């Protein structure tokens, strides 16, 4: 699928899944705004894209800062002349049993995932609606559909993203804007590596069991979902050009969740 001539904004594109999506989009011909709160990481993704003859700009953006989101998206629109695809992907994970979950940390997780998705959507549709075209892609999770212990903040935020995306499918339709959610299973990124010792501590089980039982136990083949798989789905959603596919969530999890 070609994205030649189009432009995309991807948050959290300095690492993991977001980085892979930025590289995949650029490889398919899109110009990519690589947004991240970590400037060095965003620069490194841009350098990789440019080394492969792709086009990208690095944008320092904390997705919870409304001014930074508006300015960053406007800069991308200025640089590329358009915004065709939004990928709201920036995220963090914090795990605690609810009785020990500091409210401040709960709010931080929800602010980044859900508040960030709201702000980014608001900034991007200003550039999509006048052109009567656009694809909103949200990074959900199997935790948009299922719950796990210790993850009250993350599960709440990821369920909320489904609601936001469905509202945007209805509001965006008359403006030619589609809205969908990708729901990956466990993908080996820094976000997941960090949870292994934390969950082992909180659940009182060995780290190997966190991987084999919690992360992969429900899969059909004991395998992690790959960043490449998730990037391929994002490419598909970016390129799909009619309202036939809107308001949906697509799960890629080796069967960890079926639904
Ligand atoms: P990651 O830690 O590798 O990358 C996350 C990126 O987001 C980092 O570059 C980080 O700097 C950036 N970021 C964090 N807070 C930010 C903020 N306030 N503003 C802008 N950027 C910020 O993590 P990942 O695993 O690639 O996760 C990416 C997305 O995929 C997240 O939304 C996550 O919830 C989702 N996801 C991950 C998995 C998985 O197993 N790894 C599974 C399902 C969903």
Chain-wise SSE layout:
Elements: E1 7-11, H1 16-27, E2 31-36, H2 39-51, E3 55-60, H3 66-80, E4 85-88, H4 103-128, E5 134-139, H5 152-172, E6 177-184, H6 190-203, H7 207-215, H8 227-239, E7 248-252
The chain binds nicotinamide-adenine-dinucleotide (NAD).
Features:
binds nicotinamide-adenine-dinucleotide; alpha/beta; 259 residues; 8 helices; Rossmann fold
Write up what this structure looks like:
This protein is an alpha/beta fold and 259 residues long. The chain has a single domain, classed as Rossmann fold (3-Layer(aba) Sandwich). It contains eight helices and seven strands. It has helices at 16-27, 39-51, 66-80, 103-128, 152-172, 190-203, 207-215, 227-239; strands at 7-11, 31-36, 55-60, 85-88, 134-139, 177-184, 248-252. A seven-stranded parallel β-sheet has the order 3-2-1-4-5-6-7, with helices on both faces. α4 (103-128) links the parallel β4 (85-88) and β5. α1 packs parallel to α2 (39-51) and α6 crosses α7 (207-215). The longest helix has 26 residues, at 103-128. The model has no long low-confidence stretch (mean pLDDT 97). It binds nicotinamide-adenine-dinucleotide. Nicotinamide-adenine-dinucleotide binds next to α1 and α6. The site of nicotinamide-adenine-dinucleotide has 29 residues, from α1 and α6.
């Amino acid at each position: 699928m070609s994205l030649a001539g189009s432009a995309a904004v991807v948050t959290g594109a300095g690492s993991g899944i977001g980085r892979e999506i930025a590289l995949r989009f650029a490889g398919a011909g899109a110009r990519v705004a690589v947004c991240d709160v970590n400037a060095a990481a965003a620069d490194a993704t841009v350098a990789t894209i440019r080394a492969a003859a792709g086009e990208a700009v690095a944008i320092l953006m904390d997705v919870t800062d409304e001014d930074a989101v508006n300015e960053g998206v406007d800069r991308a629109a200025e640089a590329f002349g358009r915004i065709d695809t939004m990928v709201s992907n920036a995220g963090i994970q914090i795990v605690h049993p609810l009785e020990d979950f500091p409210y401040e940390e709960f709010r931080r997780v929800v602010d980044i995932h859900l508040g960030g998705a709201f702000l980014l959507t608001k900034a991007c549709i200003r550039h999509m609606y006048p052109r009567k075209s656009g694809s909103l892609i949200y990074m959900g999770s199997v935790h948009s559909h299922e719950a796990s212990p210790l993850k009250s903040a993350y599960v709440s935020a990821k369920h909320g993203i489904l609601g936001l995306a469905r509202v945007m499918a209805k509001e965006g339709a008359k403006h030619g804007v589609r809205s969908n959610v990708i729901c990956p299973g466990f993908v080996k990124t820094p976000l997941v590596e960090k949870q292994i010792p934390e969950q082992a501590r909180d659940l009182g089980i060995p780290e190997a069991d966190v991987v084999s039982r919690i992360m992969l136990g429900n899969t059909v083949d004991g395998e992690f979902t790959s960043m490449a798989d998730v990037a391929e789905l994002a490419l598909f959603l970016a390129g799909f050009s009619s309202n036939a596919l809107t308001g949906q969530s697509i799960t890629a999890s080796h069967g960890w969740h079926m639904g």
